C-alpha cells in the first residue's frame, strides 16, 4: 500500500504553458505519495479545457487507478502528454476525480500566486 495523502491547499494557484494561462484556482489539492515530490491537482472546471487535446496515452497506478492524458495546444506549440487525470480513481483517492495534474517542464509551470 502506497502512503498517499491528499489535502486542500490554501491560496490561489496558476498553471501556465508557453506564457499562456491555462487556469487559475483557489480549490487545488496537493497529493503527497511516499518520497515523490508533491503534485498539485487543479479542478477541471478551472482549466481552459479548449487548450487541451486528449491523447492516446494512458498509465496505470495500483494506488490511484488509470490515468488519461492530454496534450497542451498553444498557438505555436503542442506539449504532448503534459496533463493527466484519474477520471475514475480508486476509492481511497476519490477526491482527485475531475482534477488535472501537470507534467512540469521548461514550458509548463504551476505556481502559487
UniProtKB/TrEMBL annotation:
This is DUF427 domain-containing protein. Residues 14-103 form the DUF427 domain. Pfam families: NTP_transf_9. InterPro entries: DUF427 (IPR007361), DUF427_sf (IPR038694).
Amino acid at each position: 500500500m502506497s502512503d498517499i495523502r491528499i489535502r486542500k491547499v490554501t491560496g490561489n494557484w496558476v498553471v501556465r504553458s508557453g506564457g499562456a494561462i491555462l487556469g487559475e484556482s483557489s480549490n487545488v489539492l496537493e497529493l503527497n505519495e511516499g518520497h515523490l515530490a508533491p503534485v498539485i491537482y487543479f479542478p477541471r472546471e478551472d482549466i481552459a479545457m479548449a487548450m487541451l487535446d486528449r491523447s492516446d496515452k494512458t498509465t496505470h497506478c495500483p494506488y490511484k487507478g488509470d490515468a488519461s492524458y492530454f496534450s497542451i495546444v498553444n498557438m505555436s506549440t503542442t506539449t504532448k502528454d503534459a496533463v493527466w487525470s484519474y477520471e475514475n480513481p480508486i476509492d481511497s483517492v476519490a477526491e482527485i476525480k475531475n482534477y488535472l495534474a501537470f507534467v512540469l517542464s521548461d514550458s509548463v509551470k504551476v505556481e502559487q500566486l
